[in-house]
Design brief:
Strand content: under 5%
Number of helices: 13
Helix content: over 70%
Structural class: mainly alpha
Order of helices and strands: HHHHHHHHHHHHH
Radius of gyration: 30 Å
Oligomer: single chain
Number of strands: 0
């Protein structure tokens, strides 16, 4: 009877360990990934800075029929390096819960210079209409640049209340991260007390690895992320590139857990067979 109870307890502890390993993996990922540093690194890895700058120039070029401002004016007003700084600032300001501080002095000067040259050549009077058109052109350039710099659509998510919910969820995950590690330590101690810890720890790691590696492998094999459809090419490459990186990371960690579980189970099968069998209750003699 005691042997059966011990076996049941081992199975329960193993199941709890699997859930705890998955939970610990989840909160650790949330702690590491939902940061401005990670999002900026992904923007760099997915060629987002260059894509955003090219997209900005295309928008200005497409707007020529309305603004009559040549693209070379905007090319002098904005640079690829300036776009990189703007994107990084938009990401950092969102995480720091403040307004983004982006310097558009150069753009204002270039657009103003173009208007003055045009007015001089065409003998345009600098009246209220002129000043209104100039202010409208500068405002459009700033707004367009800000929209292109928000590559993760953080402003949209903030207005929808999504970023607030994400921040609270991640804060909660960070709060209980060490509790998860503590729970794992307690479960390991219980495994040791119940004996055969190598086998059951290996089983828990094997099961956890399966739960991570199999879904990630299916996503990669079926190219599910590549089937996403987004209007903006910049956002598409950034989102799909980031998701590919995350899925690849999950798959890698899953296979590591899987391999570790197999090794532990193999070690138990090789060396653990020498353990003394659990004493069976003696039958009472008649």
């Amino acid at each position: 009877m005691k042997s059966k109870i011990t076996s049941v307890l081992r199975i329960l502890v193993c199941i709890l360990t699997v859930f705890t390993v998955m939970g610990t993996f989840g909160v650790t990922m949330a702690d590491k990934l939902y940061t401005s540093e990670y999002l900026i690194s992904q923007a760099d890895k997915t060629n987002t800075y260059e894509n955003a700058y090219n997209s900005l120039m295309k928008r200005f070029s497409d707007n020529y029929s309305v603004s009559n401002i040549p693209i070379d004016v905007y090319e002098k007003s904005f640079s690829a390096e300036g776009m990189k700084s703007s994107i990084d600032e938009k990401i950092r300001s969102s995480f720091e819960n403040r307004e983004a501080v982006i310097d558009f002095t150069g753009a204002e000067e270039c657009i103003t210079e173009y208007f003055e040259e045009y007015a001089h050549e065409k003998h345009v009077i600098k009246d209220d209409t002129y000043e209104a058109k100039l202010a409208e052109a500068v405002s459009f350039a700033k707004k367009t640049a800000l929209n292109e710099a928000d590559v993760y659509s953080l402003d949209v998510m903030k207005r929808a209340g999504i970023t607030g919910k994400l921040s609270r969820a991640v804060s909660l995950a960070r709060k209980y991260k060490y509790a998860c590690f503590g729970a794992l330590a307690v479960l390991l101690i219980i495994m040791i007390l119940l004996k055969r810890p190598i086998y059951w720890a290996g089983t828990a790691l094997f099961a956890s690895g399966i739960l991570l590696a199999v879904p990630a492998t299916m996503v990669i094999a079926n190219n599910m992320i590549g089937k996403f459809s987004l209007k903006s090419f910049t956002t598409y490459t950034l989102v799909t590139g980031t998701l590919d990186s995350l899925v690849g990371m999950v798959q890698k960690i899953g296979f590591i857990m899987l391999a570790a579980g197999i090794i532990l189970i193999a070690l138990y099968c090789i060396f653990g067979r020498g353990e003394k069998a659990e004493p069976k209750p003696e039958k009472s003699k008649a």
